[in-house]
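FAQ: What does a ligand-bound record look like?

Like this one, built around pyridoxal-5'-phosphate:
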Amino acid sequence: MTTKVSVERVYNFSAGPAVLPVPVLQQISDEMLALPGVGSSILEISHRGKKFIEILESTRQRLKSLLNIPDNYHILFLQGGSRLQFSMVPMNLLRQSGKTASYILTGSWGKLAMAEAVREGSVKTLWDGKDSNYDRVPASLAAPDAASTAYVHYTSNETIQGVQFPGEPNVGSVPLVCDASSEFMYKPIDVSKYGMIYACAQKNAGAAGLTVVIIRDDLLPTNRDDLPGYLNYRNHAENDSCYNTPPTFAIYVLDLICKWLQDDIGGLSAMHEVNRGKAKLLYDVIDASNGFYKGHAQTDSRSLMNVTFKFANDQIEADFFKKAAQHDLTDLKGHRSVGGIRASIYNAMPVEGVSALAEFMKDFAAKNA
Ligand SMILES: *Cc1c(COP(=O)(O)O)cnc(C)c1O
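The answer part, i.e. the structure of the complex:
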């Protein structure tokens, strides 16, 4: 892949859709008029044709290899975003089970996921971080009852609060369901610990319109005529994600991102090293600022993907955005529900971009503290 860019790019800290690797954008651009050997672009070819099936299979194999996904899991390429998974998970795994679903709430997205599950059956909260304003992950958890719990759902990285689990919560033999939307493939994980993982692509894995679902085969529903066809995981598994027209362009982009992770980065352990280094640059500035930058998350729950902090007053905050933009550092506004600053530094954000932000923050603090 080449890295030549002929246009001015800013350092874009958007939470999603978010920055993509330049070599990936370059290849998309190079192939936009015609895929090699095809004579048409990815946007113009049938999802049942040889070339697209090849791309779909390549994406699946690359994901399998990067995440070391065991053979007893299906990888599904769906639409509807992670929001639709908030409903599909309880429709498939809770409705008609006679069991209860347990939710671990560490921020905004987990709460929204649970609100959808309530429509489908019996739901309870296993842990809720609201007393400390969602600034941490649980230090310990009550063990869920294996016989009566359909699954435990958690949000591995809360994009809005900037709170991330350093590892999976231990839920014994109960299927663990993870919304990994804003951290997907940021480090190696042990997939066999999960019943299901889902992630919309536009944070860490490409273009909007695609949601990846990794589901253990025994969780695919059986004999479920109550479910609309599209909303039944089994239909997607049995039709190799071509039950209907899948999001072909976004799958092609994900294939290129996986290739970039494999060939340019050197796999997920190497990616994790880079991500740790990038996050440290910003948290070190926050920690050395004598409270000028007020980080939201507790130290051991800090996200490597979304770094969130506030100022003593709104005037300084407004000034920060203005001056940052003058340095080509953009999209730093925190989510409207919590305010402050959020620097999203996903896999594709280059170290240079994070360094530039860290330097700007040091300088800004020196002038305004
Ligand atoms: C962005 C996000 C969602 C929502 O994704 P959509 O694709 O907009 O439905 C859900 N969960 C988390 C953790 C997210 O970051």
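Follow-up question: can I read anything off the structure? Yes, for example: The chain has a mean pLDDT of 96.
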